[in-house]
Structure formats: C-alpha cells, structure tokens
Amino acid sequence: VFLPFPMNCLTFAIFAFVVAGTAHGRGQELVGYWQNWVDVSWWSNNIPGNCRMGCVKPAPFMQAIANYSVINYGFTFLTEKPNPAGLNCTQGSNPCKVWDGKDIWIAAASKTGAGVVDTSTTVDTYSPGLVAMGEFCRMARMGPGGPIRCKITLGGWSDWARIGSAANAQKLASLIGKMVLFTFADGIDLDFEHLTEYNTTYPGDLEFKYFTDLIMHIRTAFDTEVKTQWTKTIQARLAYLNATYAKLPKWKKKESYYYPTNIQYLQELAKNPVPYFEISYTTRFNAFTDPKNPWNYLAKGSPMPKKPFATRNEGDHIWPSVHNVVDTINIMAYDAGSPVGPLKLNFEQILTNFNKYGNVEKTKLNIGFEPGNQAAGGHWEGLADDEKVTKWAKTGGFGGAMIWSINPEESVEPKAFKWCPVVAHALKGILAPKWPYGEPPKFSKCDPRTGWLPSKNE
Fold first, then answer.
1. Least packed by Cβ within 10 Å: which of 53, 292, 314, 330?
2. Quick check: 316 and 268 in contact, CB under 8 A?
C-alpha cells in the first residue's frame, strides 16, 4: 500500500509545513530513549518474526516508561556495521562509507532479519524490526500509563555511514516515511552525531546539506503520503492479520495472543484521528554558542579545554534551513569528558545559547540529562541540579527535558540503573507533561504483565 513517492521540491515542503505544521504546538514534555538491546526477549514462536531483533519485555517496559510523555526507540541505522567503539573516520579502511541507498538496519547486516525496511517491504512481509518497533509503540499506547507518544530514532554514535548525496536523501526520506507508517509510530528522531566529522574528513563533502535535504523530504513525506495512507495501511495490515490468524490451528491460536491483541489495537487506531508526525533531532550542547564568548556554557569551576568539541556551532549549518520543519531539538548536555577532565556545564546558558544565538524557539528545546554513569569521561551533575535546571526551563517556557536512557543495563551502568528512574520521576513531577499535540487518542488497556489484551481463549 506504500507507493514510492517523488520528493524533489523543497519549496513545496516548506509551504506544506507553514500551512499545516504551524497549527501544531506542543506542550512541555519529558522524552526518554529506549535501548533496544536491554529488557527484551530474543525469541518467540508466537510473534511474527520470532523476535529475532528483540521484543520488549512488557513488565519492565511498562514500569520503565511510566514517567515519560514521549519515548524514542533506539536505534536504527544507515550503516551495515554499527560500531559503538568508533572514534573517527580514519580508523581502519574507510569506516564512514556512503549509505547504499537500499535498507535501513536495526543491527549488523550480517544478522538474520536485521534489515528493517526497503522498497519491497509490504504489510504482509514485515521484518522482525518492524514488528518489534510496532509492539514498542502499541504497548506505549495501550499500557497503564498510556497513551505515550513513540518515535523511532535513526542514527546514534554507532552509525558511521554518510547520506552521501541528494539522491540518497530522497531515498532515505521515503524509507523513513515507510518505516513510520508501517510501525504506526508518531514520528522520527534523527540522531546524526558525526556530521562535522564527515565534513572535516572528506573535503567537499556536503553532508550538512544532504542532512537538511533529508529533513525537508521527511516533512513532505509525513504531511502527504504517510498522512493520506495511514488509514489504508491500517486496514491492509488488519486484513493480513485476520487472514493469518484464521489459518492457524486451534492449538496455535490459544498461544498466539499477538494476533487478537493487534487486531483490536489496529481497529482502535483506525478510529482515532491521524496523529501529527513529529520530526526531532538530537545534537550536542555546543551546537550554538555566543560568538563573543564561545565558552560561556561552562559552569564556574569547570576545567577549560584547549580545543572545543568538534560540533561547535554545528547548528548554524542546519537550523536556518529547517527551522520551520523540525518540531524538537534534544540537547545532549552530557558525555562532556575532555583531556583536562570532565566539564561542568551551565545548562541554563546552553538553553539560552540555542534560543538567543541559534534562533531556536524555546518551545522546541529539550535539555538532555544522563543520570549516573556517563560515556566519554563525563560526570553527572546530580539530581538536585537536574531538578533545578528543569524548574528553570519550565518557568522560562522551554520545551522540556530528555533523559538518556529509560532502561540502563544494571550490570553495565549500575549508577544509571539506579538514578535514571529517580530523575525521570522527579522531572515528571516538575514538568507535568501532557499529550503534546491535540487530544490524546483512546485505546483499551493491555495487561502490564503480558502486554496482551484479555483473550477469549482463556
């Protein structure tokens, strides 16, 4: 039901958003990132795709997301070889290859079922990744704390692949639209962390332009094909699930709760209004700085590095072209290790810099925290500081806050495992987030222990 669609007119994209998008305004929100390799089941005989790419475990998932108003599923990739240990584009043999223009991945391409979506994917050939992300969104809506908005994150530190061309930007936007449509997600989060690295390493590289082209094409896709094909895709998927379930033997039906639950879910989804499809992107704390005082985001007592992070003023290459199209910027105000020690950040100044020098509307800015353990030698500022900053952001009319991550792995990040839920609970109390766009949709509540609706076969 998803037809390839041409998106070769950026002027139309701008016009479409100005006409339709500005009618949308979100309230303050609390965003969390879900790590799709933690608290998941790696096999099921009774779910399509057999959970080869991991299916969320309902009980810990429901408990972990309870404090959030928006959850982002991380990660999907352009690269066929995700590399969390990567540092730059000069390691090995050209690790920062141009995306092949064919697939979005959810794991290394060598793994069975790692391809999420390509041009041949249909409603009856869902990949394990599409099923996993679809269940992520379904339980976010049907859980006891729902409905909670769900988005899919593309990129992350491990993704060392470049868009590489204007043609690839169009192809990728088409696949993103298809991925959001087939998972019935609320939008996309773009976490492209190496744009400056690409431009530095490859002379003449236009990756910033290709990234802004991508965003514009995504908005066109969301506001046209995804929106108009939403109901048709629900009905087509319903028909497939009903037909598949009808062919199962009786003994198998008694074990296959996925089908009756998703059939009812899609019926209810079709009765709700088509959601507003959001575009957010994630960037570092120095993406916009004061030209006269570029280190003003350092707090009193912070060490002063000899060189800034490479992403200094990266936003200047992006925001002017997409400011009418992007709904949210999540600011990674963490992982600020340096050769002279962990930096101490002035979060209020970071938000001010984005607003004053980046000309980003306050309501589009979320300040990001990483409680407990931090990567790259960063040091967490503590619960009291996070509460103080969030109160300041709320009073000042900023968009809200973001936390990495919803579900830290206890054996790997014991401090984060302890503190992330504590901080999320505290920030929820401060922000009191509500459904960000229009009226919240209505869904039946699933069993938080199993994720399924009560079965007639029980």
1. 292
2. no
Amino acid 243 reads: A
Q: Cα-flanking dihedrals φ and ψ of residue 116, to 5°? A: -85, -50
Rounded-to-integer distance, Cα 443 and Cα 382, Å = 37
Is there a contact between 289 and 312 (Cβ–Cβ < 8 Å)?
A: yes
Residue 404, number of CB atoms within 10 A of its CB: 24
**Separation CA 396–CA 11 (nearest Å):** 33
Total-model pTM:
0.94
- Which token pair is 408? 């830290």
Dihedral angle sign, alpha carbons of residues 314, 318, 324, 326: negative
The answer to whether the CB of 68 falls within 8 A of the CB of 30 is yes
Q: What amino acid is encoded at 176 in this protein? A: I
Q: Are 357 and 288 in contact (CB under 8 A)?
A: yes
Taking a C-beta distance cutoff of 8 angstroms, is the pair 150, 185 a contact? Answer: yes
Q: What's 39's DSSP letter?
A: S
Strand pairing report for 104-105 and 115-117? antiparallel
Dist. CA 122–CA 226, nearest whole Å: 14
Residues near 212 by beta carbon (within 8 Å), at least 6 away in sequence: 317, 318, 321, 322
Cα–Cα distance between 24 and 96 in angstroms, integer? 37
423-427 long-range contacts (CB < 8 A, ≥24 apart) are: 423/369, 423/371, 423/383, 423/386, 424/30, 424/32, 424/67, 424/68, 425/67, 426/383, 426/386, 426/387, 426/390, 427/30, 427/67, 427/386, 427/387, 427/390, 427/401, 427/403
How are the residues of the chain apportioned to helix, strand and coil, as percentages rounded to the nearest 5? 40, 15, 50
Tell me how far apart the alpha carbons of residues 366 and 413 are, in angstroms, rounded to a whole number: 24
